[in-house]
UniProtKB/TrEMBL annotation, chains A, B:
Pfam families: TetR_C_3, TetR_N. It comes from the Bacteria. Keywords: DNA-binding. InterPro entries: Homeodomain-like_sf, HTH-type_TetR-like_transc_reg, HTH_TetR, Tet_transcr_reg_TetR-rel_C_sf, Tscrpt_reg_YcdC_C. This is TetR family transcriptional regulator. SUPFAM superfamilies: Homeodomain-like, Tetracyclin repressor-like, C-terminal domain. The keyword Metal-binding does not apply. Residues 35-54 bind DNA. The keyword DNA-binding applies. Residues 12-72 form the HTH tetR-type domain.
Length: 205, 205
DNA sequence: GTCTATAGACGGATAGAC
DNA sequence: GTCTATCCGTCTATAGAC
């Protein structure tokens, strides 16, 4: 085995700058539409220098995807089966909406990947993701069995939370165009709307 | 003025084949990720022959977008202010969901365009689209004033209908991966879920 | 670690024969 | 209308000097 190289401060800094720049470009253009030149100049590096840190465009992209998938699913993992059902679901909606507000590039990166057929994370989708959603669905069904929330299709409930919250990141341009110049931040209204929507839908009786 | 050329049957057929192939490729790869070669071979033509019908890649793309925008908004235009409020909204949801089922490529084409900053339809979004949504919002507010539906933020209601229905086209791969191999058609369940969701949310009292 | 220079493949678009 | 051949630009990636 080779000795691990000492990682200098400048290495860490450049690697981070590259991944940040790559997130900018890939999330806006998709994998095929992005170019290494755009990433390099956005990171303040020359193209060969960037390729000194990552062996290929593909390697940058998969490094990004791999790091992101886990953090992206954390809010769902945080859902507590022992908590108050409606409060737990509303908290999940809010966390997801906050991620759309604070990490829109990450949301668009995943959206691009899925729309293009998820060629690089198809395995994760039908593995990790599917298992996690199935577990969550069991919890939701149990809550409905106990009469603590109204009965809903649990898988489609999860889909609806994803689509509603991610919409404000992925379709941000459209949301702002429709709301007009007067609205500088659509998120407070979105949060109130989603809270109302899910409360009315899930309150028993 | 030049005389309009007679349009032969083969011209109409090739033009249609090109647009159909372009829809395949652009919806899957986005504008930058698509190549003229892919479109040409998918249409059964050589690259120079394709460029005999359209002057450029850009021209094919804008021709597609222009033709699609109108039909895409037709379901919203069909919403009748004189009809029963809940029935009108549920009918709109259903028409949009049917479009996701029957025209997923069109949905993905728009999704790609918006995610990438809508460089070619920004004007339409803050013009035609915004006016149409504003008119619809007034109708929804009026229905709430009259107590015929529960009060909701009308703009975000429209956003939620878009995001929930288009999700089943744009994120089709993810939906099917999560539901598993047993589910061949997610749409019947989706329709039932959305009908329940909006009925509970909009029923007054 | 970072650069200039460039290889080699592929992109959009055109010329011109048929 | 359709083809082969090709121009020219840009792409990813590498070689090699410093």
């Amino acid at each position: 085995m080779a000795q691990p190289r000492p990682v200098t401060r400048i290495q860490r800094k450049n690697r981070a700058a590259i991944l940040d720049a790559a997130l900018d470009v890939f999330s806006l253009k998709g994998f095929d539409g992005a170019t290494v030149d755009q990433i390099a100049s956005s990171a303040g590096l020359s193209k060969p220098n960037l390729l000194y840190y990552f062996p290929s465009k593909e390697a940058i992209y998969t490094a990004l995807l791999g790091e992101l998938l886990d953090t992206w699913l954390d809010p769902l993992r945080a859902l507590d089966p022992g908590g108050d059902p409606l409060a737990e679901i509303l908290a999940y909606v809010q966390r997801k909406l906050e991620m759309s507000r604070d990490f829109p590039r990450e949301s668009r990166l995943f959206a691009n990947e899925i729309i293009q057929g998820a060629p690089r994370i198809a395995g994760e989708l039908s593995g990790t993701l599917r298992d996690l959603v199935d577990d969550t669905a069991k919890v939701i069904d149990l809550w409905a069995d106990e009469g603590r929330i109204a009965r809903v299709n649990p898988h489609h409930l999860v889909f609806s939370i994803w689509s509603l919250t991610q919409h404000y990141a992925d379709f941000d341009v459209q949301v702002r165009a429709v709301l007009g110049e007067g609205v500088t931040d659509p998120f407070p209204e979105a949060e109130a709307y989603l809270r109302t929507m899910f409360t009315r839908m899930l309150t028993p009786g």
